[in-house]
Amino acid sequence: MRKKRLLILGGGFAGLDIARSIGKSRAARDYWDTLLIDKENFFQFNPLLPAVAVGAVETRHIVYPLRDMARHRQIRFIKNKATHIDLTRREALLHNNLVMSYDTLVIAVGSVTNYYNVPGAQEHTRPFKTIVDAMYLRARVVELFEMAEQAETAEHRAKLLSFVIVGGGVTGVEVAAELMDMARDTLLPKYPHLDRKDLSVTIIEGGDRIIPAARPEHSAYVYRFLVRRGVRMLIGRPAARVEPKCVHLADGSKVEGFTIIWTAGVRPPDLVTGLPVLHIKDGRVRVDDYLRALDPEGKPIEEVFVAGDCAASLRPDGAYQPALSQTGVAMGTYIGGSLVKRAKGKPVTPFRFKPAGYIISLGKHSSVLELFGVPLSGKLAWLLWAAAYLIKMVGFRKQLEVGIDHLTHMIFEHDSSQILNRRQILSDEELNLSLGR
Ligand SMILES: Cc1cc2nc3c(=O)[nH]c(=O)nc-3n(C[C@H](O)[C@H](O)[C@H](O)COP(=O)(O)OP(=O)(O)OC[C@H]3O[C@@H](n4cnc5c(N)ncnc54)[C@H](O)[C@@H]3O)c2cc1C
């Protein structure tokens, strides 16, 4: 019997777990001819990106080569980008015009930065979504300290060291907290001409509180924590327009920043939003209880599954599952398990998932979390944060590497070396501005 062609698009939290489930079962390997396609050849552990951005965790320690997994689990992998999916012909078109046909498709391509059509946002801000974004931010922060150290006026120093983060969700507050730790505790003491008052970090949040996904008392806790660390908080003040080095707010005021980071939200990629299926308002694909995509009439499309950030799965309370790594893992494990069951001729049960809670890191040795309804904050929460993510890292090697990073970081300060070329970090225009021209 010909093996069924299973095509998995995206090797992130959801896709990786599907591939691993299939690979673990001999029956599934005999039944499915599995091909995993990802535009990168590695999996990246997003929750630790803010820590990478300040060097608290080493860059390579949070990525895992998909090819190693593919070889180990005896499935096929290619690095390529899917550009179009033809649901009628059951084909995916790849970047180099390669066509991949399938019997069963899993779409798990995650999300992209959402600029909410704010004019100038995409052009004049930096996203914070990939390992490259994190590496870039770290290099940029250190480089700007080096330049500010040589600036001649206080005004010039303050201009170079002004950081603005648009979006006070989990990513925004984690980046702000890590940035403050690195800037205040590690960098400032090393630059004799720089002072705390030269540095500014501002969070702009359009909603009425930061981290809306967390319980209100945690939002308030994080707000107070960041204000104590010196972060300027502009809450309930949406960004309306962005110009180079300046965010205009809806109330008519403006905030200047030499580095503007956009962490205001995500949406599914165009590959997904362009599909002729049922979408919810934020662009995610509506799926049924078996995580099959629904067609525009609301009927399940056989053999097309959607998982992770691009899937909208309805919970019993009428809300949609949140776009989180734990949701991605749960969906991936479920689809993987269902495909294994099918290979073994066993019946498949519907998808059920209740998030365990959330964990928000606030930099060196502080976190807030809620696990199974129990809230916690402070150092103990940080230890639980570190332990939880250590357990979730893919493979023993990565667990060891990140564990050693955490231990090292408990004893020593951030590494402040900057190894990129200045021209790789700053545009010509920025170079002129930074030199005071
Ligand atoms: C900075 C940051 C911090 C975060 N922190 C947390 C946190 O603390 N806790 C939490 O629960 N969640 C966190 N998240 C969210 C979490 O990372 C996502 O919910 C999760 O990654 C979703 O899993 P996924 O499999 O849907 O997508 P991803 O893990 O993003 O994987 C998608 C994969 O698809 C690939 N891909 C994309 N487009 C294509 C294409 N066209 N063709 C081929 N391959 C493609 C990508 O390269 C990627 O490997 C964070 C996200 C970010 C960016």
UniProtKB/TrEMBL annotation:
Residues 5-330 form the FAD/NAD(P)-binding domain. It comes from the Bacteria. Its EC number is 1.6.5.9. Signal peptide: none annotated. Keywords: FAD, Flavoprotein, NAD, Oxidoreductase. It is an enzyme of class 1 (oxidoreductase). It catalyses: a quinone + NADH + H(+) = a quinol + NAD(+). One of its GO terms (molecular function) is NADH dehydrogenase (quinone) (non-electrogenic) activity. Belongs to the NADH dehydrogenase family. This is NADH:ubiquinone reductase (non-electrogenic).
